[in-house]
Design brief:
Elements lengths: L6 E10 L2 E8 L22 E6 L5 E5 L5 E3 L1 E8 L7 H18 L8 E7 L2 E7 L3 E3 H8 L4 H20 L2 E2 L8 E4 L6 E2 L6 E2 L28 H17 L7 E2 L4 E2 L11 H10 L11 H7 L56
Parallel strand pairs: 3-8
Antiparallel strand pairs: 1-2, 2-6, 3-6, 4-5, 7-8, 9-11, 10-13, 11-12, 14-15
Helix pairs in contact: 3-4, 3-6, 4-5
Length: about 350
């Protein structure tokens, strides 16, 4: 079975709040392609929306040609999105068009996967996106142990300009966590992936909506279906203390004391300056938190390029304060999307193809 006469699903590798994820291969001329591994093609329903992510063209398979040269198999990941009840075909199409425009915009940044193509077949919609070869930070943490201050500063220096770019496009990522940050094989800057939970900010940003985020990393306002730029900064702060301590965010928050206790679990010294920055990122009330990535860069005294003049400045948003509540403790709000993504090396889609 081929999608668009090009993409062959191989096997189901995971599923989460937004849909099912399949390992697939992009058919290339003269390539010796692997066979589907027990995939039930009924899993891919014509009415569903599918996202296709294309990897680097040089990904090698174990097969070799007659001259002994390794052949390439362009592995990709197909994500089958779940449609919410009550959505009409027109609404689904509109949402898809909005997502295409959003990903095309974001993909202009070198630290965000590019949108390569999009198409429709059999009433289904597809996105073809660059796949980043490397390891996510959950994997890096498991392999190399806790991060030190220099590594955290490098992470912040790499990601804060990316967030500033995203926010200047009026978009909130809403699912920033170690599994969605890739340390690429090629290049020396971290890459931010998985914008499936991202949201375009509008005048209705303060309206209560669907709770989206990962348990422990999502800002408290996200439990109420609200998110703004400061929500991503909160998640970045939680990511940092997880990498510094090696502990899950739930273990770094004291319910009895109603405060973060991450400093007690440090295994290496951290400067007063960085501790203050992290504490401000982790403030429960948005009014006491950093309001922009630029503010964090200034406090860390990190040089950052100004955004292009063509980028529209973010709208002024009213950021209400929320009562201090533990990070997503209630089971009804623990929407840990793509629960197997922490095992991923090279992408955040569950399991990467083996060469």
């Amino acid at each position: 079975m081929l999608l668009a006469d090009r993409y062959r699903p191989l096997r189901l590798i995971g599923q989460g709040g937004f849909g099912k994820t399949f390992l697939a291969v992009d058919v290339a001329p003269d390539a010796d392609l692997p066979e589907a591994n027990g995939l039930d093609t009924a899993e891919i329903k014509p009415a569903a929306t599918l996202k296709t992510y294309q990897p680097l063209a040089h990904q090698q398979s174990a097969q070799r040609d007659s001259a002994g040269r390794p052949q390439t198999a362009n592995y990709c990941v197909i994500k089958q999105l779940l449609s919410y009840r009550g959505q009409t075909a027109r609404q689904i199409k509109k949402l898809f068009q909005q997502e295409v425009a959003q990903l095309a915009q974001l993909g202009q940044h070198p630290q965000i996967p590019k949108l390569l193509a999009h198409f429709e077949t059999d009433a289904a919609q597809y996105l073809v996106q660059e796949w980043i070869e490397g390891e996510n930070l959950e994997t890096v943490l498991a392999q190399q142990g806790n991060f030190n201050e220099a590594q955290i500063r490098q992470l912040l220096a790499d990601l804060l300009p990316v967030l500033r770019f995203v926010h200047h496009h009026q978009i909130v990522h809403r699912d920033l966590k170690p599994a969605n940050i890739i340390r690429p094989v090629a290049g020396n800057q971290y890459v931010l992936v998985d914008f499936g939970a991202s949201k375009q900010l509008t005048d209705a940003v303060a309206e209560t909506g669907t709770t989206i985020g990962s348990a422990g990393y999502a800002a408290p306002e996200q439990t109420m279906g609200k998110a703004d730029f400061a929500s991503d900064l909160y998640s970045l702060g939680v990511t940092c203390i997880h990498l510094l301590t090696g502990l899950h965010p739930f273990d770094l928050y004291s319910i009895s004391e109603d405060r973060w206790v991450w400093r007690q679990y440090l295994t290496q010294p951290v400067s007063v300056e960085l501790r203050r920055v992290l504490d401000k990122l982790l403030q429960r009330a948005t009014s006491q938190r950093y309001q922009s990535a630029s503010e964090v860069l200034q406090d860390l005294r990190l040089e950052a390029k100004s955004p292009p003049a063509s980028q529209k400045a973010p709208v002024a948003l009213r950021t209400p304060s929320y009562p201090p509540t533990p990070p997503l403790l209630h089971s009804s709000t623990q929407l840990a999307l793509h629960s197997n993504s922490h095992r991923t090396a090279g992408c955040n889609y569950g399991h990467c193809p083996q060469s």
